[in-house]
## 1
Amino acid sequence: MSSASDTPGAASAPLLSMRGINKAFGAAQVLTDVHFEVHAGEVRGLVGENGAGKSTLIKILTGLYQADSGTIEFGGAKVSITSPADAERLGIHVIHQDRHLAGRLTVAEQLYLGRSEGRYGWVSRRQLNRRAAADLERTVGLRVAPDLLVDELTVAEQQLVQIARAVLAGPKLLVLDEPTAPLASAEVAQLFATIRTLQAAGVPVVYISHYLQELRQISGTVTVLRNGANAGEVDLAGRDDALEQVVELMVGREVEEFDRTRTAARTPDPAGEALSVMSLTVPGALRDVSFTVRPGEVVGVTGLVGSGVDELADAVTGNRRHGGRVSLGGRPVRSPRAFVKASGAYVPADRRRDGALVRNTIQENISLVALDKVTAWGGLIRRRAEKALAQAQISRLDIRPARPQAVVGQLSGGNQQKTVLARWLAAESKFLVLDQPTSGVDVGSRAQIYARINDLVDAGAAALLVTVDLEELVGLADRILVFFRGEIVAELRRGEATTDRILALASGAGQAGYADASGSAGADTELEFA
Amino acid sequence: MTATATRNRPGLRPAPRAADILPRLIAPLVLAAIMLAFSVLTPTFLTGDNLLAVLNQTAILALVAAGMTVVVRSGGIDLSVGVALDLAALAAAAAIAERYVPWVAVVVGLAFGLAVGLVNAFLIVVLRIPPFLATLSVWFIGTSVQQLLTGGGAPIYLVRSQVPEGFALWGNGYLLGVPFPVVAAVLVAGVVYLALDGTRWGRELTVTGEQPGASRISGKRVGALGASAYVLAAGVAALAGVVLASRTYAFIPASGQLYVMDAIGAVFIGATLSKYGRVSVPGTMVGVLIFALLANGMNLAGLSFFWQGLARGLALLLVLLLGVVLARQRTSRVRPPATATTAVPARKG
């Protein structure tokens, strides 16, 4: 068994070996002769831009898709995996990027769903809940009431529950697809601790992520896919410029710098007021929060799970009932409709549910808010005008495919998100609320999204950016508000904000008495940020 | 398919494969097969007179189903359209029996039907009762109301010679040789189709039905859109009720209920025409015609009325099963959100 960061010796037989995998959807060849091996006790990174084939490869491994050709060997024997149940029987557990939690179950039920130990009727509900609470705390450091409905959890908490469920099942191989996208830093640290525990027990982990810095912390070797084929493998421990090498393999060309878009400091109009939030209170989430956002600035907001930031965007945009006053350009916001009427734009965190219209075309997605502009007498939609409206945004944001009739559910995450943003650009919204705008979005699309946000704000728009991606926060925000337990604990200006400092504040450092009560929340876990 | 096939080139539409399209063609193929079978079996089936007669008999179902299509598109279901139909027929027949002028009878009939839609809208949109349960309750209540109003469910029979022509025309008149009910059904289906797939209202209704959260965030009047669907469905059913009362010169309690399940069946047969299971007026009309021709053909072939339910059920199962089985073979890359047929999902908070 290899130790933490070692590359497994070539001599040992791999636990998993996928060879010659081909897969096409219609005329589109998605995977071409892909091979992928995982050895016992390693954390294997799997990276590539959106659409490179990572998720398809993993869905073949779990039986959600069938490969057109190719073989899978697991534990030395050739296996045929035709359903997720087959995969779980083999001990292969996957946390998919698009989460599939059954919303009407309680946390405890979800945790033991479909497992013989958790048969109801034999176990008392109270015992079950008690055990669930202990298991959650132990495996992923999550503290939530086990009798809450899964629906009532935030996206991050749902993610942690799912990871706990997989870990509790005693996996032989754990696959995490973009696991940290919804997580804040301390939760990431806890997740890494969980992964290292598994690794020490010889259980290999396949780790798919757009966050290359994370891979450096957790992974030994990284397999890079590009355009559905193997682009190469990189030993991250091997060279100092290993990450640059990975990026190069991903995009297939040399990249000058791997950095977030960073513009010069802006000078917002000190008298102007785009968004004003007064004494905002959401029971159980936010307490008496007040702040303003001025035209021409990006205000960033961050916090850990339970800090209230997950509820903030919904409350500010009128999508969640709250106490206190929110106004936009002087007009009170009491409903999503009032928010939109006041020229507000909201890019929500749950893209596939509340953002992109997955069964509609790009054209229909983009015109949704600006339907006024393309509606003729009698309410008839003028298709040609609608198409022109869409095409302007498609080229502005470089949405691919650049075909207004393409169905959005079939686009990559990055292009879906660009389409959602395009909807508000087409409506010429003046105030943006962005909740995790680049979660699960590839490097290229991310840069384009940042660039458009900067354009808008430079032109006098205002933006509220809610994100757990601290580099994004530091790169984009002019001011940063750090939330802790439902309150703003710090306001940092551009220049004073570093990821370390934000993380410390978000974890409650400097809060009197918190250090003693922090338990396993990970405030003291060391974390490295580039 | 070979691995050397095209790369995923941006901007190029991948050629549709037979396996992608076939599941969506099942319902039209079943319709064609039914027509073919009966035209071989019974010589009178494929005559103009017979087909026009079939359409005339189908008009009421077509109207009800067009309204149902709107409700299902909005993410709901309406089990009470039969009540809207019945109350409209009851009110219109009673008004004629009381010797009111025809246009009053028609307006009163439509108003009674629309009232059912408004009650549904109130229960579902304001009180947030799931559509299935809300309309089920309204159906129970409406059935009882009919019996109370008619003194225990006694039919109202109108004396033909005393029914003014202005009312009799609705169910028995002809326009350019086409029975009026058929004209009404075609007009209504056309308008509903245009409204659903060509107007802003239809676009917003569809988005609200499929992804209510996205619709709300985009500033749409989610409640008003949902309410409009129930009112429209009830209004169309009320029109069907007026036509039925006129055609039969009578009101027979609970006759509307016959159409509800047929309409739901037709709507979901029609949903198989869409890649994403989205219901549409053209699809619904294919379903309506399958049911209608099945019934007519069996009549002509001398089969008992009692076989018709069996035939309808089997046709529905056949279309749905073939559609699902064939669709399963091609792996869907789009994971649409669960089709909301029973609940108007409400955002928490």
Note: Chain A has three domains: 11-91+171-257, 102-169, 275-359+410-517.
## 2
Amino acid sequence: MLQSELSKDYFTLFGISRSFVIDRDALTERYLLLQRQSHPDMHASGDPMEKRIALQYSGFVNQAYSTLKDASRRAFYLLELAGFSQNEVNAFAVDDEFLFEQMILREQISDLDTCDDPLSVIEEISASLRRLQADTERKFCEFYKLDKLKHAAPFANCLQYLFKIKEELDRSELQRLEEG
Amino acid sequence: MALMKITEPGVSFNDRSTKRVIGIDLGTTNSLVATVKDGSPEIIPDKEGCELLPSVVYYGDAKQVSVGTDALKFAESNPADTLMSVKRFLGRGIDDIDPETSMHNVTSTSDGVSFVTAMGEVNPIQASAEILSTLSRRANQSLKGDIEGAVITVPAYFNDAQRQATMDAAQVAGLNVIRLLNEPTAAALAYGLESKEKGLIAVYDLGGGTFDISILKLHAGVFEVLATGGDTSLGGDDIDLLLYNWLMEDIGIGTADLEFSMRRQMLAAVKVAKEALSNSESVVVDTSFVKAHKTEVKITQDILTSIISPLVARTILACRRCLKDAGITVNDIDNVVMVGGSTRIVSIQTSISEFFGRELLSGINPDNVVAIGAAQQADILAGNASMNDILLIDVTPLSLGIETMGGLVEKIINRNTAIPVTRAQEFTTYKDGQTGLKLHVVQGERELVKDCRSLAHFELFGIPPMVAGSARIAVTFQVDADGLLSVTAREKTTGREASINVQPALGLDEGEISTILEASFSNAEDDINARKMVEQRVHSRHLLDSLAAALEKDGDGLLNDSEQSEVRFLMDKLENVLLSKEIEKIKDATESLAKKSEYFAMLRMDRSVRDALKGKSVSELSEEVGS
């Protein structure tokens, strides 16, 4: 690939500072500006080479945006920029307290079928997830700011866990609706 | 805005200020064509003034193909030769089709399915191409000239095979496809441009054969599709069938007891009744043409409501899933757009309005809205439109993955990922000295390969023999803005590009398309070569013109003297070769010039991107953590 914006990191591409805390609105605003330049539709009358570059560029912008807007992926990306591969990050152990909490949540989700008032349990689980998410993000951020990356890494794993639990909850909720 | 376009206005290879472009809604039941005239979109009617073209093709024994109303006349007398709802068969295999309810004689082929007619086997691509050709001719006559490009709509939930089949049909019909556009996105475009609404829009699209739900965000002139979902086998046809089954049960007759033509007649009667119920409380269906204990049956609004309620519940479930995927709740939705003829059913309107808790938008005729949006998008993409600042960013509706050990699916691109998108995944060999790798690409949300749609089998050859696990094969999946997938592969340790064979699991390969093309146009070889020559010249001229303009504008700023003269040298060379009639030489010269100038094009894109962000200071960090 040519040396260009495409070889830059996502933060530089979007013109924002490399940090875990981001301004979502500013990110989206920049995303739209970048797509306006690069989206293949903006080059529909161009020659095939220009179209190919637009396709590559726009795809890269999409990839960058989807990484930056999600807390878990953003955390992993920051660590990747600092030289940690995904596998290396995954090798950092998550603390027992978190493991215990997420286990309880997963149990609650799998027990939804048998509980009397699933709707209020779903609400409870969602509230716990939101609290854990905010907590975990704060901890990751603290260590990352201090450049204590090995301390930050376990919290990236926690964010990934939380993402998966959220998916599981959504799935189970829809399944319940499906079964009527 | 001038910075955005690499091609400068005025140097376009076509001097005419507006291009003749059209939008086509290739529907299950009806199809339409629209265009933008003097800034406003309109449906192009046929000579008799009819806007809707029934999506029906008749292959009679007189070797004559008829389309639309002319074909519909044969639906009852010649059911096997009269192909209806062909869209439901596009890009699908025999396993997807329920022979019990099918009104066609269907046979399985290597490409999927074919219909057995008096004119022999006809595949769904050919039949769809007939519909597209008819619309294209209609537009041609109305706009008084050749159609330069078309935007064709597809259900958002169409998979790659179904999209590819639509593309193939357009190619057989001789249409230049500017874009495959998702139907709900087209509808939102039609409404968005009309009402300039901001905020979150839900598009509920229940057509003849498919159901789609899409959630879009309109901001700063950009339509961003947040999520899409649906069911490619749920539509008005299914409502007809439910009603048909209910009625047959009511009069005590089994479908197997009826001949094809009687089934068609009964189905037609049911359909008329359903449509009448959109405007009245009850209808009476005459069933005297079959031997039953009842000669007529009364269907009330309440009966229809209860018959279709499981179907409506399925669409609402899809809406919930889509809202979750979009990460919003039902209360966040600002506008609900209703698309497709089936949304005329009163109880559907009531249920959907209740679910979203708001009034429904229905200012544009639900039959026309998709074609109108498609025409507007064609107008924008052709550079005709005054609203050049509208951009659509769509998503891929289904996850893409590959088969791994044990028949499991590993997802490479998740559903609802913004397109275009490129994802690379690394693979390795599992045996010593292994020189090939087989990949099976699938599409769908399920965890097992057998529950997903098989898209293609890829075989990768030419990997240098190595110890197991040491080869590093990067496989790149790319979905373009049409939602079409392509896959490339490269062995990284040696840097060697490996060859890849693509065998679409369904759909036609290039050879088959050209066979059909040749059969349908019976072009002499000379004609084909002449056409290729014209296309190549247009293409080369286009490259030269856009490069000349680009060099004048940015040459000094972005390239040094020697880089500039290298490009100019190749441009002169191409100019000279263009004087000749040797197509191969023209092709070669064009390719070398394109390759040489790629770097320059990339630099220009880089600069336009940097300029766009200029003036945006590094954002203030918010105090709040996370999102």
Note: The mean pLDDT of chain A is 90.
